[in-house]
Every structure is written in structure tokens, then in C-alpha cells.
Write a structure and sequence with these properties.
The structure is a single chain. This protein has about 280 residues and is mainly alpha-helical. It contains seven helices and eight strands; from the N terminus they run E-E-H-H-E-E-E-E-E-E-H-H-H-H-H. The longest helix has about 30 residues. A two-stranded antiparallel sheet has the order 1-2. Strands 3-4 form a two-stranded antiparallel ribbon. A two-stranded antiparallel ribbon has the order 5-6. The two termini are about 40 Å apart. Helix 1 runs antiparallel to helix 2 and helix 6 crosses helix 7. Bound molecules: zinc ion (2 copies). The site of one zinc ion has 6 residues, from strand 6.
């Protein structure tokens, strides 16, 4: 397993707290891990095939143009935002420590794989083969680490997957609920779902559960200014040094705006200590 990285070099660790970190979109980043690439393609295939089944077996048979167009637009909007967020999480440098990084004031140890002095929050990822700042975890479905520079996109990915799955579950569940309310069900009624609808239901349930678990865990790590590993294994429930709002701004951008919901907008990456003053 290896990574292909084009890094233009950074000196953020010696630049001091006043200097913004290098914008992550200035780098090209893609992890050449066959399992990760396969999982990431599977995630896209599930969303795209789910959308195809939704149209072919659920929306079009309704013969209601308003119903088809309205739900088609909602599904396409949410699914497109989810896939765009997935792509940006995968292709954004999560916060790699430069190879051969010299020791600085925040250096706590040395990585023999990267030959780099590493700061307090960084740890080495064996899949990416790099030390990543504030490394939360390596996600095979994203084929990348989740670190401080791509956490916003991962958060958006889980949110839009959750909303897309909820929309599909409502489309499947509301007609069943209506038929039950009309008294069309009795003790002898049986449920027989066609295979495509069963596939759509399972994909939607899987997406919904994934989104709920990941969204809740990410909100916890962001609010507490920790990583998932720190929350699980180290002095777990102590609060972060800064407010929840300041920690959220450090991930999503320094000003609360609609841009927080856009996977196309790159947040400004400042150290959280600066946001503390704004919170
Ligand atoms: Zn390393
Ligand atoms: Zn990794």
C-alpha cells in the first residue's frame, strides 16, 4: 500500500499562531490503497444504484409528474452534495506533517517512518504512510484519513448521506403507513417486497445507520477538541480547552454561514486558539 502525494512543502509548525495554515486545496492528494479505492467505489455504486432503483421502481410507476419531479430534485440535490463531500474528503490532504519536518516548539516525538518531528496531536497512519495532524481515524469508505484539514467535508458527507437515506426511507415508509391507517392491513396480511425495493430499503437503512453513528461521533470529537482514539482510550470525557462553538469554527470556518453546508467551500484553517477569542 502506498500513497501518491504532491506536497509543495509547509512550514506551518514553525510559523507561529498568528499565521494561517497552508490552504489544503493547494496540494494534490490520493491514497493508492486497493482496498480503500474499492470501498470508495462501492460507496459511490451504492448511492448511484440506489438512485436508479428509486426512479425506476418507485417514482416513475407512481405516474404523478409533480411527485416524480419534486422527489427527483430532492434526491439528486442531497445525493450530489453527499458524493461531492465524499470526493473532497478523499482528495484533500487531511493535514500531513511534511516529510523531514524539522523540530519546532510543539514537537513531542519523532517518526522514524516519515523522518519527521511530529507535533502533539499528530500520529502516523500505516495506510497513508504519513503522520497526520489531529488524525481522527483512517476511513476505508473514504480511502483517506480524517484529519483537521478534511474533517468538515467528512462531517458534510455523513450529514448528506443521512438526509438522503432519510428521504428514501420516508418515500418507502409513508405509503405503507398510509395503507395501514386506511385499515388495509389485518392479521392475515403479509409483506412481500420486490427484490429491487428490498435492495433500496437495505441500502437506505445501512446509509442511515452509518450516518447516525459517524455524525454523532464526529460531533463529540469536534465539540471536545479531541480525536476518536483520545475519546475512546484516554481520559475520555474531560472537556476541551475551548468552547464548542470555537471548536466547530476551527473545523468548518471562522464565520457561521451557509458556506458551512457547502462541500465546495474550503474553510480557513486557523489554530483553535484564535477562534477562542472570537467565540
Ligand atoms: Zn510518520
Ligand atoms: Zn490514513
Amino acid at each position: 500500500m502506498s500513497s501518491w502525494v504532491q506536497n509543495h512543502g509547509t512550514s506551518e509548525h514553525s510559523a507561529g499562531l498568528e499565521t494561517p495554515l497552508q490552504a489544503p486545496n493547494q496540494r494534490c492528494w490520493f491514497i493508492l490503497d486497493p482496498i480503500g479505492i474499492l470501498c470508495a467505489m462501492a460507496a459511490w455504486a451504492l448511492v448511484l444504484s440506489g438512485g436508479w432503483v428509486l426512479f425506476r421502481d418507485l417514482l416513475i410507476p407512481s405516474n404523478n409528474m409533480l411527485y416524480i419531479v419534486a422527489n427527483g430534485v430532492v434526491f439528486h440535490l442531497l445525493a450530489s452534495l453527499a458524493l461531492a463531500s465524499h470526493l473532497r474528503t478523499m482528495l484533500t490532504d487531511p493535514g500531513s506533517v511534511p516529510l523531514g519536518n524539522p523540530p519546532g516548539p510543539d514537537t513531542v516525538s519523532y517518526c522514524t517512518d516519515c523522518h519527521s518531528a511530529i507535533p502533539r496531536t499528530a500520529c502516523h497512519c500505516t495506510v497513508c504512510q504519513r503522520c497526520i495532524r489531529k488524525n481522527d481515524h483512517h476511513c476505508p469508505w473514504i480511502n483517506n484519513c480524517i484529519g483537521e484539514d478534511n474533517q468538515k467535508y467528512f462531517l458534510l458527507f455523513t450529514m448528506y448521506i443521512g438526509l438522503t437515506s432519510t428521504h428514501v426511507l420516508l418515500l418507502l415508509g409513508i405509503p405503507v403507513l398510509c395503507s395501514y391507517m386506511r385499515g388495509e392491513w389485518d392479521s392475515s396480511s403479509t409483506v412481500s417486497l420486490p427484490a429491487p425495493i428490498l435492495f433500496l430499503l437495505l441500502v437506505a437503512i445501512m446509509g442511515f445507520l452509518f450516518a447516525v453513528v459517524m455524525l454523532c461521533s464526529q460531533m463529540c470529537v469536534i465539540y471536545s477538541d479531541k480525536t476518536t482514539t483520545e475519546l475512546l482510550y484516554q481520559n475520555t470525557h474531560s472537556g476541551g480547552r475551548w468552547s464548542k462553538c470555537a471548536n466547530m469554527k476551527a473545523v468548518c470556518g471562522s464565520h457561521v454561514s451557509l458556506a458551512w453546508l457547502s462541500p465546495f467551500h474550503s474553510p480557513e484553517h486557523y489554530k483553535v486558539s484564535e477562534h477562542h477569542d472570537m467565540a
